[in-house]
């Protein structure tokens, strides 16, 4: 590796260490009760190093937030020839259920409880859902060459994003009820089919590639 490559690898290693230690402390003590100083001590770095990598304390808990926010928009942008936005999003979500993907909500009981018990993280999660819906609206506008100000992409994104919110919350609900990931996937897969089918009459042909 080059010097630059080694430097970037070291930065990523440090970032991951800080994130892992923060998550461990959040799950053990609670998000609000854990301080940046405690995280820095656990990761054996300076407090300034923690805030340089993670400007907000919430960023430490939602380390994959960028992937989450961009996920629906990327699915629409990468849809197959002849595939509608609805079909692509349904296919991608069902694949995520089969993989038991944490980004879809399969985060495990300790992480799910951490979010549910923290008012700060619960609000932050709702904000991430909002950002994901906005990114989806932009992708739908691009996919349909919508005129500026056209409400259609935003309305479609609200409906499609709403189904994803419901399914994400359902996975969290079942996780907190003590169901394991394979059991949750067996329940949520058919429920997702049912939820997406409700949108077929209105959005079945929308944004077809």
UniProtKB/TrEMBL annotation:
PANTHER family: HTH-TYPE TRANSCRIPTIONAL REGULATOR BETI (PTHR30055:SF234), HTH-TYPE TRANSCRIPTIONAL REGULATOR RUTR (PTHR30055). This is TetR family transcriptional regulator. Residues 12-72 form the HTH tetR-type domain. SUPFAM superfamilies: Homeodomain-like (SSF46689). Residues 35-54 bind DNA. InterPro entries: Homeodomain-like_sf, HTH-type_TetR-like_transc_reg, HTH_TetR. It holds the Pfam family TetR_N. Transmembrane segments: none annotated. Keywords: DNA-binding, Transcription, Transcription regulation. One of its GO terms (molecular function) is DNA-binding transcription factor activity.
